[in-house]
Write a structure and sequence with these properties.
The protein has about 325 residues and is of the alpha/beta class. About 35% of the residues lie in helices and about 25% in strands.
Length: about 325
């Protein structure tokens, strides 16, 4: 019988301010969950989706309420009994970890995924003045990163992209608008981004306004982030986006993320696997899934002032699994 051992809130400090169109952060609150079968302990981590109204404290409450119900604590049952989000992700991840420890099999094998290998990951360039973003891009490339995720906000974005390109002229670029292009000419923006090495434009419009992208013949593909949480969203985003960003805090765990990955590919949609801000504990199941992704955005542990011991390492622009 599986029971909840603990659900707690942890605060982790970032190495530098993380700034996007919706605001800036210097630390992140996480929910950490532990489950046990009486012999082994499984651990999972979730990052509250603040733009959906989640907080770490509310996630703890949701986990405690779910585990007090008279029904099995299993990954399959969570899909029926909990809403997607960080609470379900933390609990789902803990159950995967518990099964891995109890069976002696690694997560990737249990999930039917390829054996993990180092992956090229994007590195985030926070929103700021063009001069600062240029300096940050140059610093990232000097550290070995060649795929940069550039945060934009719908104001002076071409100058920001030009500055990043100047600071890192050979880098590949993902432009992340975080829903900020509702009031601008998206086609002109998309055409303009191509000259700066942009290969993907993430979430240009607000979730719910995906139809605005339907008639845009863009030279750079659009990627759904806020618009696509689970596989149930695919009907709405297909035809508007060519790529979906799979984040376990949105899907509510690896169990549904695997389903979303499979169904997206059946529709000929490409995928990116990313995370919210998190430690290596939260990034671990995403890293397993990312082995099948077209783009990888798993720099979150590298953005912390200090990660958990024995976590991922970063070198040569790649994320490397723990030894």
């Amino acid at each position: 019988m599986i029971t909840l051992k603990s659900a707690t809130v942890e605060r982790w400090t970032l190495d530098n301010a993380f700034t996007i169109a919706r605001g800036s952060k210097t630390d992140v609150d996480l929910v950490v969950c532990e489950v046990t079968d009486g012999t082994h302990i499984g651990r999972g981590e979730g990052t509250p989706i603040y733009y959906e109204g989640e907080t770490a404290e509310l996630c703890v409450e949701a986990i405690e309420m779910r585990t007090k119900q008279n029904r099995p604590i299993s990954r399959e049952d969570l899909l029926e009994s909990m809403m997607e989000g960080a609470a379900r992700n933390a609990l789902d991840s803990a159950l995967w970890d518990l099964e891995s420890k109890a069976s002696g099999k690694p997560l990737w094998q249990l999930a039917g995924l390829p054996e993990p290998k180092p992956l090229v990951t994007a590195f985030t360039i926070s929103l700021g003045e063009p001069e600062q973003m240029q300096a940050d891009a140059a610093k990232a490339v000097e550290a070995g990163y060649q795929l940069l995720k550039v945060k934009l906000n719908g104001e002076n974005d071409m100058a920001r992209l030009a500055a990043v390109h100047a600071g890192a002229p050979g880098a590949r670029i993902i432009a992340d608008a975080n829903e900020s292009w509702d009031e601008i000419d998206i086609l002109s923006m998309a055409i303009g981004t191509a000259q700066y090495g942009v290969e993907l434009i993430e979430q240009p419009v607000s979730a719910g306004f995906e139809d605005e992208l339907m008639a845009v013949e863009t030279p750079v593909p659009f990627c759904a982030d806020e618009s696509c949480h689970t596989s149930e969203d695919l009907d709405r985003v297909e035809g508007c986006f060519g790529v979906v960003n799979i984040k376990l805090d949105k899907t509510g765990g690896l169990t549904e993320a695997l389903n979303l990955m499979e169904k997206a590919r059946m529709r000929d949609l490409k995928t990116m696997v990313g995370t919210m801000l998190c430690t290596s504990l939260g990034a671990a199941p995403a890293f397993a899934l990312a082995q099948k992704a077209d783009w990888v955005d798993l720099d979150a542990p590298a953005l912390l002032k200090k990660d958990r011991e024995g976590g991922f390492t970063y070198s040569g622009g790649m994320i490397h699994p723990p030894a």
